[in-house]
Every structure is written in C-alpha cells, then in structure tokens.
Amino acid sequence: MSTSMQTNEDTEQTPEATETALVDVSRLSKLYTGQQEIKALDDVSLKLHAGEFVVIRGASGSGKTTLLLTIGTLLRPDSGTLRIAGKEPYNLSNDDRARFRADKIGFVFQQFHLVPYLSVLENIQAPALTNPHVSKDDAIRLMEQFGLSDRSNHLASQLSSGERQRCALARAMVTNPSLLLADEPTGNLDEVNAEIVMKSLADFAQRGGTVLLVTHDLRNSEFADRTLKMSNGRILMEETGHAESN
Ligand SMILES: Nc1ncnc2c1ncn2[C@@H]1O[C@H](COP(=O)(O)OP(=O)(O)OP(=O)(O)O)[C@@H](O)[C@H]1O
Hints:
Layout: H1 15-19, E1 23-32, E2 38-48, E3 53-58, H2 64-71, E4 79-84, H3 94-104, E5 105-109, H4 120-125, H5 136-145, H6 161-173, E6 179-183, H7 191-206, E7 210-215, E8 226-231, E9 234-240
Parallel strand pairs: 3-7, 3-8, 5-6, 6-7
Antiparallel strand pairs: 1-2, 1-4, 8-9
C-alpha cells in the first residue's frame, strides 16, 4: 500500500475517534538542572487533532525543541501528561515506548540526520530496522514523490542540502506515521527548497496526518492551520486560527 498518502483512510475512525485529539498534552513541565536551573517547559497544555498542521514559533531558548522532544517521547517531562492516540507513552517500558515511537511518530530536523555512507534509497528504508511495516516499494514511491529517483544510488553525503532534507522527509514518512514532528526543517534551505518542504508537510496534513513544526521563522506559518507562540517555556497565545491551547 502507498505510504505517505494513507493516514485517515487506513485507520478505522469512528466519529467519536475523530473528535478525540491525536496528541493531548496536559500541564507538561520540564526543569533542566545543573549549574543553573532552567524551566524549559512551564505548565504547557496543547491538543493536536488528526489532519492539523500546527506551527509553534518562539525565540531561541523559549523551549520549542524541549517540547518537541517531550511530545516525541524522547524526553520524559517532570510532571504533566502526554497522550498520543489514547496512550500514555511515558507509562510504557523503554522497549514498548521505542516501538510506539517507531510506529506512530516521524521526525524531521534542521540537520537532516541522514546516514552519510548509505544511499538515498537505503536512508529512506532505514526505519525498516525498527518498523516491520516499511517496504521497499513504499520507499521507492516516496523517493519518486520527492524527486529523488535520479539520485537513488547517491550517498547521502553527496546530496545538496535541499535533496538531503527531501530524503529526510521521505524517511520520516515511510512508516506512515500519525504524527510528524519537525524542528526547524527549513533552517538550512534556500527559498525554493524550503517551499517544497513546507508544501510536502502541508500535503501530509491535508491527507490526514498531524504535523507539529517548531521554528523561529515567521514564513513557516503561512502553511499552518494554527500558529502558537512560545516564550520562557510557556505557550502564550494563538497567533492565527481558533484558540485551543492554554
Ligand atoms: N540538556 C539541557 N540541559 C540544560 N539546559 C538545557 C538543555 N537543553 C536545553 N536547555 C535550556 O533550556 C531552554 C530551552 O531550550 P530549547 O532547546 O528547548 O529551546 P529552543 O526554543 O528550541 O531554542 P532554539 O530555537 O535556539 O533551538 C534553553 O534556555 C536552553 O539553554
């Protein structure tokens, strides 16, 4: 089955289920301790629904990456609750949480995080290591969708920045995740490639996937259903659309 385009259609959704938030963040807090205590998340609440594209904007150090890592089940909060698709991932064992993450969540980062000595196709297929549903056919289809077919055998280290990010996006989508988390995904790209990436994320959301993107770049909001502003570990206000968060 096609991967990138099959979010809502392939999951059995009752009317009740579609009304339930895919991601329900309730009163998350996270304090970094060390030489200095920093409250990176301060009582953050947020709901993300299936098919929503939400941007969180904020200055450097406002807590955006911490929020993304916490929602990505990679950084345990000190308090508060995270529910994704009705489950509380931080209540699962480490192994079960890793499986849950591999199954439900795709990540896109500013720095791409491709494996430099693997080819484009091998990079896109890499999630097969942790997700048994990833097939070569899906990887090839995404490679075509992102205009990388003629680079199939190039090593990731031989790609341009735009090609690397498109490859990283294809890799993030090959598992057909419910949720895509993106941290400054256009930070290293020129305008043309940035637009390709943003349109691909918007397309993913239009087909039923949920996208949460954190950035300091105002231009990314153009593609979002909602933009929230973050400052000092708190979500301050909704910049566009209807209010949903604290
Ligand atoms: N591992 C850590 N240990 C201690 N403090 C940290 C750690 N990670 C982040 N911080 C601090 O927590 C605050 C929030 O950091 P975070 O990376 O979430 O912000 P951000 O909004 O993503 O910033 P940027 O846009 O610069 O990436 C910052 O003050 C940062 O210095």
